[in-house]
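Explain this protein:
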Amino acid sequence: MPHLSFRSTLFITVLLIAGALGAAAGSGWMMLQDFALASRQAGVSALKLSAAMQQIDERSADMERSARQYAVLQAPALRERFDEAYEQAQTALVDIEAELPVSAATTQWLERAGRLAAGFEQTVPPTDAVDAESDLASVNDRLAAAVRSHIDQRNTTLLDTLERSRDRLALQMLAAVVLAMLLALAIGWWILRPLKHVERAITRLGEGSFALPVAVSGPADLRQLGDRLEWLRQRMAELETHRNRVLRHVSHELKTPLASLREGIALMQDGVLGGLNVEQLEVSRILDTNARALQERIEQLIGYNATQFDAQHLDLRPTALRALVRDVTADLKLQAMVKDVQINVSGYAPPVRGDAAKLRIALSNLISNGIAFSPHGGTVRLELSADEQNARIDCIDEGPGVAPDEVDRIFEPFFRGTRRAPRPDKGNGLGLAIVREFIAAHGGTACVMPADRGAHFRIELPHAPQAV
């Protein structure tokens, strides 16, 4: 079976199941045919025996009547009538003997009929002939009883055969159904097991884990799919390695001339190369500012790349959200005091299973964003809550908010919205992107909620398994 395709496997399975059920149905049909044939033969035999018995009764009556009349009238025609009735009765008796096993009643009938016939020849005493006439009726009764007993016995045998056939058919149908179920379960297991492997492999690739090779067994087309996934894993691993290498090379190639540029600007500002007039000093300050900004951008790009890598490696432990929020707000207290912004924390959320260090970074970036965009004397509200599945943190500020057409892009790296902070902002557009990376790595979500004033960000994280 390893070389069979998925379609061929299903086709063979259907054929096997249909064959098992068809064999049981065919056996049942043959049993029904045999029973119908036996029933028809039994019916024909019963009709034949009944007709023969009726013929014997009628002819016996004719024989007795002819014998009595002949004893009085001595007419040859009565003898002929007797002989004709006797011959017809014997023919009917032959039919009965062909169906019945050896019976004493048939022998007795022949004996009584023979004695009655001997009366015509005067070879027996008249009293014996009279006795023969009286006994013939009782012999007919015994013969009729034997015929009925034979018919009843045949009917009983037929019913017993039907009962056994029914039981055998029930067992065959049960065996066929069980066999079909076992075949379906076996083939289902054989097909679903590699599908689970495919699902796990795709999940690992989606999570950026390229260490484990992809190995899929089962039907040929599923194994081919596994081979393509393995090729994709290797290709993605190569691309990831190449991306990191290019990023390192680019950052190095940029930092080296940038360091020389900043060193030259510093020499110019220090007057080592000669004095500078006011305009030249202004130009040198602009160059120095832009060089520093460029260096920060390079470092931020490298840092964001490291953040994406770190998001794939979590140290998951039960983490108390409220205590974590308190710690983060304490760290940001000085930043809030400088901008005269209040931070209010309310509510409660149950523990989550997470990496406390990375959740701390995500919360710090989110709250810092709220502080940066809040006006002087504003407030950043942190509201903790939960539902049946997730713990929730809402961060609400009083700043300009998020433009409706920018909601879907606000978490993109280096994206800066059109609505600016009240004071000059040196943000790099990576804070919210890091929030989304770390929260998504924990199986949670980060989104923007509708708000009448300011920005309303929401983080949702799954409960810790022990916290219900």
Remarks:
- The chain has three domains: 6-184, 220-310, 317-462.
- Confidence is low (pLDDT under 50) at residues 123-130.
